[in-house]
Here is the input.
Amino acid sequence: MVCRNGTFILPESVYRALEALVTNGFVYLRQDEDTLTISTTRLVGGQRRPLNARVRVQMFRTATRLGIVDLRDSIRVMALNATARVPSGSPPAAR
Here is the structure.
């Protein structure tokens, strides 16, 4: 899906699937190092937000394309065009 300045719109099928599982109108968002999890159940370290098809997350502010993994009661969103992060202390990749 397309992302502009950290804002993206969930595909309708994904939004409807989440909406069917939400009973109180809220979802939980948790940002890990490179993944955003949106869940219908409480997440440790997650923030509670109203379910909305339009989502804005600062961690994706430089991304232009995002991918979604649907895990039934939650989804994971990742940047597809992010530059790979090299762990500190690792040798540089061969060219």
Notes: The CA atoms of residues 13 and 47 lie 23 Å apart. Residues 83-88 have pLDDT under 50 and may be disordered. Residues 12-21 form the longest helix (10 residues).
